[in-house]
Specification:
The protein has 259 residues and is an alpha/beta fold. 49% of the residues lie in helices and 14% in strands. Strand 1, helix 2 and strand 2 form a beta-alpha-beta unit.
Amino acid sequence: MPHADPIFAFAEKVRSGPCQFCAWIGFAEPAIAEQMAADGFDAVMLDMQHGALDLSAAHRGIAHAGLAGKPAIARIPVGDFATASRLLDMGAVAIIAPMINSQADAQVFADFTKFPPLGARSWGPRRVLALTGMDTDTYLREANRQHLSIAMIETKEAMAALDDILEVAGIDGVFVGPSDLSIALSDGRSVNPGHPAVDAALDEVCRKAKAHGKFAAAFCFDGARAKALRLRGYSLCSVSTDSLLLRQATKAELAVARS
């Protein structure tokens, strides 16, 4: 059953549908995460891999999203699994880990984000207890299911190992990074997230995730792509990014003003 807390119930919403749409946050300003959450996104995604957020900014972003009544997801830098554990302690509901290319990678990731018996996460959930109102026993009992560990699929190696990655019990779902996947599938010749080979990979990822009883998620550059993937069975999609939306709105409004 979903947890009563509206933020901590996010995992069950992803698993049961409908598709959840997240704002992609790269600016290290927590008010942006709060505003985008308040404007209707189901969650905010704090990008610590390519965005400007350090651990302090992510901590504040989680809190500000909570002020708007929405959960926060965080993408960690490549291989920074210790930070994944700290972000869960701070109240992030999900961790996206880039460049998970093998079952061994996936298991190490799960070890840092899941308590035994699924992993070996260290105990220290001080902030998350305050955000959810849970007592320690309830949190320990529910945390492995209510925090999502999401492995990014963005290389040829990851596609080849997809079944093996999905077999790891501590992995809840997979997240397609279409730009990196397009680079990998073209042997470094182009960045084209809409390439037919990427599109075919998206179908394969979704099909295999569902076969393993897990969910598929993806980065989407716009609402049209997010809608298309929702209709194809995806459970979690980003919709553009904070910087792209700001740029598009700026250009559009200035064009009207100067017309």
